[in-house]
């Protein structure tokens, strides 16, 4: 979710956009809030503190970025990917734990481990 730090109206719309996104997207969506155009600090209409406070209230990661100067762009994507990785890892672990807890004791696969070292097979051309 990106707003323009030089236009207060875009920041004021963030909560509505978030509500719409959450209403229509998958519940596991990863959302990050970014205040863009940090290179235009002299035209700032939204403080970084306001952005951070809203992000915290909404449970979002937050960064200020500048597409023009490529400031924090890579970090924003890395943050999102890290959050996605953590969600997937938690789900995989929960699935493994659920599978382990529902397994019936004594109903595993039997593996025959007999010693066959004395029974070496000969190839088709060996004598």
From TrEMBL:
InterPro entries associated with the record: P-loop_NTPase, Rab_GTPases_membrane_traffic, Small_GTP-bd, Small_GTPase
Family label: Belongs to the small GTPase superfamily. Rab family.
Family annotation (NCBIfam families): small_GTP
Coiled coil: none
Species whose genome carries this gene: Gossypium raimondii
Gene Ontology molecular function, alphabetical: GTP binding; GTPase activity
Protein name: Uncharacterized protein
């Amino acid at each position: 979710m990106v707003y323009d730090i030089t236009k207060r109206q875009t920041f004021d719309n963030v909560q509505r956009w978030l509500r719409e996104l959450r209403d229509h997207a998958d519940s596991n969506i990863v959302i990050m809030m970014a205040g863009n155009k940090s290179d235009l600090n002299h035209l700032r209409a939204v403080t970084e503190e306001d952005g951070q406070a809203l992000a915290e209230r909404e449970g979002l990661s937050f960064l200020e970025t500048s597409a023009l100067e490529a400031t924090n762009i890579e970090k924003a994507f890395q943050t999102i990917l890290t959050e996605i990785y953590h969600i997937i890892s938690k789900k995989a672990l929960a699935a493994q734990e659920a599978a382990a807890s529902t397994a019936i004791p004594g109903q595993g696969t039997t593996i025959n481990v007999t010693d066959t070292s004395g029974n070496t097979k000969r190839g088709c051309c060996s004598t």
